[in-house]
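Researcher: Please generate the 3D structure of the following complex. Treat every line as part of one assembly.
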Amino acid sequence: MTAYTTPIAIKKKGNHSLEVSWEDHHISLYSFRYLRQHCSCAGCVEEWTGQKLLDPETIALDLICTKVETTGNYALSFSFSDRHDTGIYHFDHLRAICPCESCRGKQKPLRF
Amino acid sequence: MSDQNNETVLTALSQVIDPALGKDIVTLGYVKNININAGCVTFTLAIPAPLFPSKEKMREKAEAILSTLPGISSVEIKMKTEIQTAVPTRGVPGVKHIVAVGSGKGGVGKSTVAANLAAIFSEYGAKVGLVDGDIYGPTVPILMGARNAELNQNERGIIPIESHGIKFMSMGLLSKGSAPLIWRGPMAHKAIQESLLRVDWGEIDYLFVDMPPGTGDVHLTLVQTVPVTGAVIVTTPQDVGMTISLKTFRMFEQTKVPVLGLIENMSTYQCLHCGKEDDIFGAGTVSKEAERLRVPFLGGIPLSKKIREYADSGMPVIFADPMAAGPYVDIADKLATEIYVRNYNKRTLIIEEEPEEASESFTV
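Model: Done. Output below.
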């Protein structure tokens, strides 16, 4: 477990955004719409080819998240207002999709 | 009148260090119920694990230090085990620690190790539960000497079977004799969830989960359903066993379950005729591997006809033949300490909820 992918604090800011503080002092701020667009569940990403099945533009602009839960020791899961809740967001994946300026560009979403 | 009071006693006791954590026993909160009466001081030393290798040393040191205080004529220390848990476990109510016992391949003696470790933790004063996660090859009922037990329910859930002071749950009890469970993944998933969550465990300090070999549905379900304190991996020393165990190790690593250590089973064989030891599967490879992976090596258990016979007759070694249980006790000792130290250093991850801020315009 590296500091880079170990969260130390998770904040659900209202129904629209999520803030994750990592052990390496980085802070990631995600909108729940962005997280929904980056869901890696088998319904959103083809299991064998890794091809994206979800068209990100189909996600409603006013999408919110009603519940954030930890999954075991390694991931988060979300209940979105479009009733999608099958995604398991591995901490490694969450860090890899951090939308901040300095992380963007070197993004390479991981798959599990 | 005594010259001493609670303050001076606590100050004196703060010289006693718990070597596992490098902190003193007062700061760690082990010292409880101090009572000073006419030069006689009594207190409770609440130790954090059932087999704490340093507990006798700490007790002796505390006694020695207090005896030197002026006005103290006698010291009486009561020992108590108080197992701590960092997180109020979300998954299984009443359960403080969940320990998965896994292996890469089958036949390495994982279930035997799990049952025997559970028995030792119980014998040393912990409240112990055991879940048979190996739904396709359930052996826990046999190992616990209760192969014909019947499962019943109350309003809180399934009542676990109690044998040798250990509460256990096995899907093996639902399919009698040689009738196999032929299930696809989703059923296995459901079965393991029920075995953990729908059982009326009561108060449990350590819940051991005997995993099926490999990395499959049951493993994923376990790590996703409950926060697992850690996992131990049982392996035999020969190359095939070790290589496959690495896959199990990587699985726990990916799902961020701490690996508490490796156990080398069947490490040596003592010949019944000449008494000579022979390393049938090679020996020492597991400890080297543990060093390379930077996880603790918990110990080795010899291949023994006795252990096999006790296992088949449903009698954990610690009860059948305490003299032969030495290697298991050493392992349990290290494991209990490892759980305790990890738990002490663990941070609890809480999801904070903040009301919607003024900056509601945040979008991507």
